[in-house]
């Protein structure tokens, strides 16, 4: 509703589904300047209220679930939600699911803090909030519940299933009371699959979709790196960056208004066969560029809706070629658009199960499940080899947060050595003389270091303990605070692994 009202004020229409058709009739300078104004507002917001000028998104929610007991940043989260609202209302080429998921996480964080919830309860509350938000946003109760478990919590523990399903159902009820329970996309006719003969084509579509998904993700990361380099070299203030991205996006939208907003209208055209082959190919390339500019320019928004549009266009282009080459054994070209939509989105999100169900629930077409599942499975398997499992996990990997490899890889980074070390006055403390000798040799740990940094040092030195110091700075000598024993580090790590396993299998 917020997007509709702000969009109506900027563009003169509150219909999100037909924004690009309406924008095509506006004066060129309005199409150019609207994203610039939105980008400038976003840049100033992020400059004033965040320390890094970055919009918080689904990746931060996944990090919160794994590392901070289901909590996320609240102040920066609210600012990010406002920034994404402005981006989506002013023509930003992103989606609404990222902001929706993150604002749900912010709400669950406030609740968890009020209840003083432990880590397990905090993560359960987070899962419930995310499931309800996704369900209310897309009218997709089954997919909303599975998205929360598959993407955010990254496990399917039995104790989380009931509350998450109830929350997801509640979100769907709210959606249907407000919007009537209609599907996002309407397909013109029943899709028919020539099962055994046509399945190899959907395997090939899965491969193509996996490559397209990887290109989309890498384009975003490349644009972000390019923006960082240009900003640093030119010495530009960070609030200028979203405005510059808005300028590029507006210039691209003048000949191609299809890139404005979430792209539901173009996605619907692809699913109903309303585009020609060359249009599907060109719109795919242009949309990838627009998404990369918007997200690389730090304007805000999510990546799910754009991946649906890119996937539908990719699938339609593939389907038009396949049905032209083999007209006697091929079904409808629109079936390929449906399968491609799921395949690209699943590869980007790293969520084959929930994405497959979202596609079914968004379209209301449950009869073509085999084609969608085949394409989704192949695309996800391929794209996960080209990036770190998914778009969100690759985002975290680029920040140094290694969640893709599982708890055994990231749990060490959750322990500061000061919380595990033995103080100098503790029973069975390390000999002080030996500690100073090791410090003199350069073998020590800063008290703010983590076990992730300590374990390689144990491996390298084969020491039983390593001194922990507080660095004095300047010419002041370090202060000896204690020593980290390898056995204590391993014990803390094993306990964390056991607790994680117990939660995931409870």
TrEMBL record:
<keyword id="KW-0868">Chloride</keyword>
<keyword id="KW-0813">Transport</keyword>
<feature type="transmembrane region" description="Helical">
    <location>
        <begin position="366"/>
        <end position="388"/>
    </location>
</feature>
<keyword id="KW-0472">Membrane</keyword>
<keyword id="KW-1133">Transmembrane helix</keyword>
<dbReference type="InterPro" id="IPR001807">
    <property type="entry name" value="ClC"/>
</dbReference>
<protein>
    <submittedName>
        <fullName>Chloride channel protein</fullName>
    </submittedName>
</protein>
<keyword id="KW-0869">Chloride channel</keyword>
<dbReference type="GO" id="GO:0034707">
    <property type="term" value="C:chloride channel complex"/>
</dbReference>
<dbReference type="InterPro" id="IPR050368">
    <property type="entry name" value="ClC-type_chloride_channel"/>
</dbReference>
<feature type="transmembrane region" description="Helical">
    <location>
        <begin position="161"/>
        <end position="179"/>
    </location>
</feature>
<keyword id="KW-0812">Transmembrane</keyword>
<keyword id="KW-0406">Ion transport</keyword>
<feature type="transmembrane region" description="Helical">
    <location>
        <begin position="243"/>
        <end position="264"/>
    </location>
</feature>
<feature type="transmembrane region" description="Helical">
    <location>
        <begin position="125"/>
        <end position="149"/>
    </location>
</feature>
<feature type="transmembrane region" description="Helical">
    <location>
        <begin position="276"/>
        <end position="297"/>
    </location>
</feature>
<feature type="transmembrane region" description="Helical">
    <location>
        <begin position="303"/>
        <end position="326"/>
    </location>
</feature>
<feature type="transmembrane region" description="Helical">
    <location>
        <begin position="199"/>
        <end position="223"/>
    </location>
</feature>
<dbReference type="Pfam" id="PF00654">
    <property type="entry name" value="Voltage_CLC"/>
</dbReference>
<keyword id="KW-0407">Ion channel</keyword>
<feature type="transmembrane region" description="Helical">
    <location>
        <begin position="28"/>
        <end position="49"/>
    </location>
</feature>
<dbReference type="GO" id="GO:0005254">
    <property type="term" value="F:chloride channel activity"/>
</dbReference>
<dbReference type="InterPro" id="IPR014743">
    <property type="entry name" value="Cl-channel_core"/>
</dbReference>
<feature type="transmembrane region" description="Helical">
    <location>
        <begin position="338"/>
        <end position="360"/>
    </location>
</feature>
